[in-house]
Amino acid sequence: MSMEKAELLGLIRGHDWLWEQWWPALEALAEQAHKEVGGSFPSVFATTAHMVASELTWQARCDGQVSASTPKDIAGLRLDWQVLAGRRREWLEAASPLDQISYQTSTGTAYTNTVSDIALHLTSHAHFHRGQLASQFRLLGLKPPSAHLITFFRL
User: What is the Cα–Cα distance from 52 to 74, expressed in whole angstroms?
Assistant: First the structure.
């Protein structure tokens, strides 16, 4: 599925806005972030680290590079994400939604997808894991942020 450039940029702005709604709650967890509560990843930190690492990996693929490792605390993840979000915005401003990006997965399999395909995957992946974060917050006895993509588009 291809998107117009404005739609693509709007989707990513909404995605980044959702992250900004979550960071204060994530940073407030302190050591609770590492408490094992279960799920696809054992803790809020592990889930968040996976999300950030995935976004770093996709941007590295788009840049034709290899991604770096992620920090060991939420504050470090947020800093990495902020740098990534700025880099992604710059890259998307120059890219076309139909541009073809060729890359290799971690297993070495080669693929080619459009910028639109990658943006849709990136946002869908994050939405999936934000649901897991919400469940993990509840398992810790906390209330997760109430932030939804439609809210961004209503602003």
Answer: 10
Spatial CA neighbour of 25 closest among 118, 115, 143: 143
pLDDT tens readout for residues 109-147? 999 999 999 999 999 999 999 999 999 999 999 999 999
Domains of the chain: 5-154 (1.20.120.450)
Determine the Cα–Cα distance for residues 66 and 106; give it in Å rounded to an integer.
10
**Residue 114: strand, helix, or coil:** strand
pLDDT in tens, 64-121: 887 767 788 999 999 999 999 999 999 999 999 999 999 998 899 999 999 999 999 9
Beta-carbon neighbour count of residue 128 at 10 Å? 11
What is the separation, in whole angstroms, between the first and last Cα of the chain?
Answer: 26
Q: Give every CB contact of residue 114 below 8 A, 6+ residues apart in sequence.
A: 2, 97, 98, 99, 100, 101
pTM of the model: 0.94
Q: What is the pLDDT, as a whole number, of residue 92?
A: 95
